[in-house]
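Repro:
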Amino acid sequence: MAIYDPPHPGEFIRELYIEPSDLSIRKVAEALDVSASTLNRLLNGRSAISSEMALRLSITLGRSPESWLAMQDHYDLWQVRQKINLDAVRKIDVSAA
């Protein structure tokens, strides 16, 4: 089941972890062992969670790496579904091959 307009994972991180705990971006970036600019791009929705970042987030903030990647996938799929026209795409019968 598709989530309606899921937040970007960076927004989720900012609103559920950073702001409530009054953490600085620099402190979280240091814990992740990434630059503050790298984390800032993620928090502002200008970059996606990679497999590597999912592992880092899992250690630093908790949750499984798979859940971080799933969150990114849900966001990406919802964004694409808003833009793509699939009317010309059709199914083929691969069982006859």
